[in-house]
Amino acid sequence: MDITIRKINIEDHYNIECMTKRAFWNLNMPGCDEHYLVHRIWNEPDYVSSISLLAETEEIIVGVILYTKCKVVTERGEFPVLTFGPLCVDPEYQNKGIGGKLLVESMELARQNNYKGILICGVPTYYPKFGFKTADTFGITMPDGSNFDAFMGYELQENALSENKGKFYEPESLDCDIHDEEYMRRLEEFDKNYPYMEKKVLPGQWR
Ligand SMILES: CC(C)(COP(=O)(O)OP(=O)(O)OC[C@H]1O[C@@H](n2cnc3c(N)ncnc32)[C@H](O)[C@@H]1OP(=O)(O)O)[C@@H](O)C(=O)NCCC(=O)NCCS
Predict the structure, then answer these.
(1) What are 118-143's pLDDT values in tens digits?
(2) 52: domain range?
(3) Does the residue 35 lie in any domain?
(4) Based on the number of CB atoms within 10 Å of its own CB, is 177 exposed (0-12), middle (13-18) or buried (19 or more)?
(5) Which pLDDT score is estimated for 174?
(6) What average pLDDT does the chain have?
């Protein structure tokens, strides 16, 4: 199977959102909201299109990684970092190295573009094999001072994170509060634009 990794055009947006829905549907909650997050990211001023990538085979989009600018607030001021999310691969194409390829190639692009470090909240069993370490390693916490296994970082430049200890902030516009009734109402409405999938309560859902 030939996989092409390339940058994203506006014409790809809807198909990326559909693929994201398939990748996350019923995974962490009944249904999902990640395709709604992706839809909002396109217009976000902090979205970094120059290093966000998709994977395709025979012109079918099978994976994506999207980057957003974030910051660590240190004692000296604000230190710019990146986060990504979602990173996802179409369920029919998972475990074929596509997620890894998207990650490695985009991280190299980020390094070449002089970004210093990446902080994410993601699957704690997946990212360490690509060199991610829990954020406490670098002395970086969430805004409320907490750390947890899913909160991880990667230094694109040597010691870039460990020399900028502080609190990590993401753009508020990307908040996904599934306990907020208004947010869920907007999500339901938004989801009507995408192929129907049945919501299921499944073991392992944590949101
Ligand atoms: C997580 C994900 C992006 C990985 O992409 P992928 O192309 O399937 O993975 P790769 O082929 O690059 O890597 C496969 C390896 O990762 C592991 N892996 C895949 N998905 C994993 C997951 N959710 N948790 C832990 N490990 C995972 C596989 O077991 C395999 O391990 P091995 O190399 O030791 O055999 C993809 O499975 C996905 O989209 N999952 C659903 C959405 C999601 O959870 N995204 C991440 C949010 S932080």
Answers:
(1) 999 999 999 999 999 999 999 999 99
(2) 4-172
(3) yes
(4) exposed
(5) 78
(6) 96
Rg (CA), the chain: 17
CA 98 / ligand 1 centre spacing (Å)? 9
| Pocket (CB within 6 angstroms of ligand 1) | 23-24, 27, 86-89, 94-100, 122-123, 125-126
Q: What is residue 182's predicted lDDT score, i.e. its pLDDT?
A: 95
Burial 71-87 (b: 16+ CB within 10 A, else e): bbeeeeeebebbbbbbb
Q: Would you say residue 60 lies in a domain?
A: yes
200 falls within a domain:
no
- Domain with 41 in it: what CATH number? 3.40.630.30
Q: Compute the distance between CA of residue 118 and CA of residue 80 in angstroms, rounded to an integer.
A: 9
Q: Quick one: CA dihedral 126, 24, 15, 91, positive or negative?
A: positive
- Testing ligand 1's pocket by substitution, the residue of 27, 95, 148 carrying the most ligand atoms inside 8 A of its CB is 95
67 contacts 171 by C-beta, under 8 angstroms: no
Under a CB-based contact definition with an 8 Å cutoff, are residues 123 and 149 in contact? no
**Ligand 1 binding pocket mutation candidate from 24, 38, 89 (most atoms within 8 A of CB):** 89
Is residue 178 one of the residues assigned to a domain?
no
Q: State the pTM of this model.
A: 0.96
- The rounded distance, in Å, linking the Cα atoms of 167 and 184 is 28
Q: How many domains does the chain divide into?
A: 1
